[in-house]
Amino acid sequence: METASDIKEMVRTKYGEIAGQTKEQNAASCCGAGECSTVDYTIFAEDYSKMKGYLADADLALGCGVPTEFAQIHEGDVVVDLGSGAGNDAFVARAIAGESGKVIGIDMTPQMVDKARENADKLGFNNVEFRLGDIENIPIAANRADVVISNCVLNLVPDKRRAFEEMFRILKPGGHFSVSDVVLRGELPDGLRNDAEMYAGCVSGAIQIETYLQHLHDVGFATITVQKQKAIELPDDILANYLTAEEIATMRDGQTGILSITVYGEKSAATCSPGAGCC
Fold first, then answer.
1. Rounded to whole angstroms, how far apart are CA atoms 162 and 141?
2. Torsion of CA 32, 15, 229, 264, to 10 degrees
3. I want to staple 61 with a disulfide (CB 3.0 to 4.6 A). Which of 45, 53, 90, 130 is the partner?
4. How many Å is the maximal CA-CA distance in the chain?
5. pLDDT tier for residue 28 given thresholds of 50, 70 and 90
6. Distance set, CA 212 to CA 78, 180, 222, 237 (Å)
7. Which CATH number fits domain 4-266: 3.40.50.150, 2.60.120.260, 3.40.228.10, 3.90.1200.10?
8. 145 with 58: CB under 8 angstroms?
9. CA 272 to chain centre
């Protein structure tokens, strides 16, 4: 892979292209943006259409779970959605947090932020906002959020440990997160792991599930629980662009796998840094 800066720019460019398309256009293309290439960006997506607060214009089918289903959001909560895209999860979260709540979406792709703001304007919401920002340096004050959610985005971040530290920083003591993400079981073949296109497609940027959970523990989160887990199988016609027939067979034998997980964790109510305003 290229440098962290190169990776971010590649992801920003690719998702900027996707922002200009509808869910149907993304689903009709095997790459999700422009002409067909090698990656299906919608392959992990789950159905949101029956969720309260669902807005079709905000659903680009780019997630890998439904974190709001497990996030234990309450009325009046401040919810932060990391990698908010066109606003899909943010609007569902807003429906749960209600008029007395607040939802802040963070995304590093200007086109996505613009699209999310347009969607919010259509609905006339005054308690949902979208900010341009980097998940490794979230533009939100410490101890601000009751709940952090994210959907298939943290795996795109080059420095995942730093992103988890930022999640911990912005959560209030006693707050919690529920994030859906892509992780690995076993080592991916080099052809998948080193390909930039597959990085933007959420595959080669993923890390081992044990490492993912350990990072969360190391930055201070407690009560870390995998709320949902499912295996993801990439179609052979996509894998054939990267792997030999033997490598594909190895991936199918269960020793190596791509998983979609939804993970929960808490920031202890006793956690407070001197000078942070929570003591």
1. 16
2. -160
3. 45
4. 59
5. very low
6. 25, 12, 14, 29
7. 3.40.50.150
8. no
9. 27
What CA–CA distance (Å, rounded) separates 32 from 240? 18
In 3D space, the residue among 179, 168, 170, 182 whose CA is nearest the CA of residue 217 turns out to be 168
Domain ranges (residues) in the chain? 4-266
> What are the pLDDT digits (tens) for 47-77?
677 788 878 788 776 778 889 999 999 999 9
CA distances from 189 to 40, 212, 246 (A): 18, 19, 11
pLDDT score recorded for residue 41? 43
- Rounded mean pLDDT of 203-222? 90
Residue position matching structure tokens 């080592």? 187
The whole-model pTM stands at 0.82
Backbone angles phi, psi at 134, to 5 degrees: -105, 130
